[in-house]
Amino acid sequence: MHRLFETHALRREHDLSGLWHFCAQGDTQEAFVPGCWECMPGLERYRGKAEYSRSITVPGEGYVRLVFEGVSHTATVYLDNLCLGSHYGAYGQFSFCCRPGAGAHTLRLTVDNRFSSASVLHRPNDYMTYGGITRPCRMEEIPPVYIQRLQVLPTRQGNAWQLAVQLTLENLDDRPRDVALSLMAGEVQTQLQSQMPARAVQCVSCVLSGFQGALWSPDDPNLHLLRAVLSLDGMPADDLTERFGLRETVWDEAGLTLNGRRIQLRGVNRHEDLAGLGCAVPVQAMARDLQLIRALGLNAVRTCHYPNDPRFLDLCDELGVLVWEEGHARGLDESAMRLPAFMPQSRLTLTEMITQHFNHPAIVIFGMLNECASDTAFGRACYQELFSLMRGLDTSRALVSASCRRGAAWHIPGDTRPEALPDLCHDLEDIVCHNIYPGWYTDAPTKAVVDALWQAVQRCGGKGKPLIISEIGAGALYGYRDSGESKWSEERQREILLEQVNTLLEHPRVAGFFIWQFCDCRITQEGSQFRDRPRTMNNKGLVDEYRRPKLAYAALKARLAACAQKKEEKP
Ligand code: ADA
Description:
- There is one protein chain.
- By secondary structure, the protein is an alpha+beta fold.
- It contains 8 helices and 33 strands.
- The chain has a 9-stranded parallel beta sheet, covered by helices on one side.
- Helix 7 (490-506) packs parallel to helix 8.
- Alpha-D-galactopyranuronic acid (ADA) is lined by residues 126, 330, 370-371, 404, 435, 471, 516, 538, 540.
């Protein structure tokens, strides 16, 4: 299951989950797909190359499309030893179309999770780059012209909605083909004709007017379906259904208004990581994570620091959890951003994120380049180009980047002088976002930090923009209790977090905050900068890697419940 609703009634899909042949370091065994090889005995710390293969049975003489939702981090795909192509990046969907003929064929992938200058985004870091076919994959039977993508952007028009639709079609044949398209959303329908040149990808756009339906909001997350059917020679040949929501978002200095209601974003940062299974988190565990997050009284998730599994986004759509989805990149300095692969890899992964996840109503923010070189002229030029790429793909969401560029004064414990920020990119983004850890990395109280930050932001390109505190938090080792509340104890984490959250809930300038982090996550063994990470984990989770709650979880829940009650009591 790669989505949580039926995407095709006509196109036949064959799930390729299951046991594959797997070979690493000369040893052959079976591996379950989707999965990370670090979960296999003896490979817990393996960083290198591996080969996956299995037999697939192609039912007919027509085309098939092999679709991979995520392979970490570089994959080359072969069918019967013919190379179909390669893909970089663990968090984007990719596919190859071919016409191998009916019968059994061997599908083979080489997968590489090594670090080198050829991979700028996957590198030693404060989260784990796992190895393997980590998200679902499938084979689809497709006609010579098929629907690659269906994008829908609803905008309000009086009492109804207008749906701006864009279809991406591909003609795999050597001859031009005439196609007929029908689009259906509720009662609203339209028909289109298009001529597809030979061997080409082409977009077809149209507008469906007068759509009516219930709105999407965190309290009442209603969803609607848009179905496209493509006919060849007068016969329905292919289809694709997408899901969307009707909502209006407006950002101003005070924050987000959704369908006319002001909402303070209160969320967690969440890494895709689960004890024993790594980043190949099963869908039922994703649902449990969201239940744990909602039970806390939070309304948002930041998918730090990469695009998430579409099933997680589907769950957020269904449960009404607001999402800041982030492109892949954490902590790149200028020297990393100057590597030749940086811009091509960033363009690719950001384009994949926006085009593949465009229709999710839960996503209200698209982000990129967490804590990268937003403080140099060269860095700024990269930010500028990538923001304009993102804007070209989506004008309907706020674009952001979480910064830590506050200059030397902010690193002196207790010193929060509102000096000019060295961050040069606040004018480029829609919301100013900073990662701060008062009480953990500095001794300053949260209020002093946020007040000083807000003043500094006004002078550094951020005037009139909302301010989101994209990371607050503190570390605790699950089970380490200490009445002296020493660092790493659950008591200390609880105290620091409550001080941070209490301040941000009341602060008039803060449009939202995201706690670092939902769950403890594994980090890479490599990378000397993370020596202060006991267990080779980032231990700032509210729950540990098994989802066992630390003391901070219950304390935060009680605090947020009190806050919700206070609000209800207001006349
Ligand atoms: C940063 C970063 C996170 C994480 C965090 C921490 O702000 O964005 O990925 O590393 O710090 O735990 O220190």
